[in-house]
Write a structure and sequence with these properties.
The protein has 337 residues and is an all-alpha fold. 73% of the residues lie in helices and 0% in strands.
Length: 337
């Protein structure tokens, strides 16, 4: 039942998190900094209680080893949320981030000198092609002749800046994964500890975005209350954007902690499959509920991205011989058992 409940809460936590995120960015597209700040703050406070037992439990991995990881993690999260302020829609954001395998493979080859099977290269080609198709299809929804943003920047240029931000975050995330892998190889696997210290040590970085956070805090406070709570005395006066933010923060924690549980209950293959299906469910819900533009070409690109992801993990396609890095991983797994 442990694996079943973990999978259930991954879908509940992660999918509902996307809903609250879209509710926020629909009203305030550039509110990524305040969202990220409160997500980090919540996980840091929770970790201080559950991981360190109010500071009494000593960390296993030295603090100095976390510094580079913290910089990467903070940068990835801030830039991913920042992209919404550059005319990036939620469906495109989900699809683009699903292309993480591309960045991981390239970084694996460049940084670690790994070799992969033809099946993996084929799957990466599918994911790349799918991402390009979706990106180009989204570009068609932008009219360069419509309103021009402040400073004379067109909608298309703004959108291209968002694509650049997402691309940077994608490769930074892949590099972070490699660094974390090497860190765990050296000191052992301590994901809960790493989760806490990464979020805690990232908090000072938000000083750089304090102006944006304060500005959006004011906007959130001035937002209208939810009609859903109109008959409830206390809740009827709560600004709706603060309610959405609270929902986003709590579901983000549920999502992250459920994924952690899932990794301890299931194989990495199952985890990848569950997360892929979760992204697809979030994508479909976003399209239907929020009526985001989604053309035939978007569907073609989506199918290529998710089919390529499943092919990469070996869920579909021929049972190819494991790559060099897979053999190493399997040997370590057998050794641990």
């Amino acid at each position: 039942m442990g694996a079943v409940s973990a999978i259930l809460f991954v879908f509940i936590g992660c999918c509902s998190n996307v809903v609250f995120l879209e509710l926020l960015v629909k009203d305030e597209p550039a509110c990524g900094n305040i969202i990220t700040f409160f997500q980090f703050l919540f996980i840091a406070v929770e970790g201080f209680v559950s991981v360190t037992n109010f500071g009494q439990t000593k960390n296993v991995i030295p603090i100095k080893e976390y510094l580079i990881l913290v910089f990467m993690f903070f940068t990835v999260n801030v830039t991913n949320n920042m992209a919404f302020g550059f005319k990036i829609s939620m469906p495109l954001h989900i699809i683009f981030r699903s292309g993480g395998l591309i960045a991981s493979l390239i970084m694996g080859v460049l940084v670690l000198g790994r070799k992969y099977t033809r099946t993996k290269y084929a799957s990466v080609l599918m994911i790349t092609l799918g991402t390009i198709i979706c990106t180009l299809a989204s570009a068609e929804n932008l009219d360069d002749e419509e309103q021009v943003a402040e400073g004379g920047v067109s909608s298309f240029v703004t959108w291209m800046m968002g694509i650049g931000i997402l691309t940077f975050a994608l490769f930074m995330s892949a590099r972070m994964g490699i660094f974390q892998e090497l860190l765990f190889t050296k000191y052992g696997k301590h994901p809960r500890e790493a989760l806490f210290y990464i979020h805690l040590m990232s908090l000072p970085g938000f000083i750089l975005t304090a102006g944006s956070i304060a500005d959006h805090a004011s906007r959130f406070t001035n937002s209208e209350p939810l009609m859903f709570f109109i008959d409830i005395p206390i809740l009827s006066v709560l600004p709706r954007l603060w309610v959405f933010l609270a929902g986003n923060v709590v579901t983000q924690f549920l999502c992250v902690s459920s994924v952690f549980r899932l990794t301890s209950e299931c194989s990495s293959l199952t985890v990848t499959l569950v997360l892929t299906l979760r992204k697809f469910a979030s994508l479909v819900f976003s399209i239907i509920y929020f009526q985001n533009p989604f053309t035939f070409y978007h569907w073609v690109g989506t199918v290529l991205v998710f089919a390529g992801t499943l092919l990469f993990t070996g869920v579909i396609g021929p049972a190819a011989a494991p790559s060099v890095e897979q053999k190493t991983s399997d040997a370590e797994h057998d050794k641990e058992e």
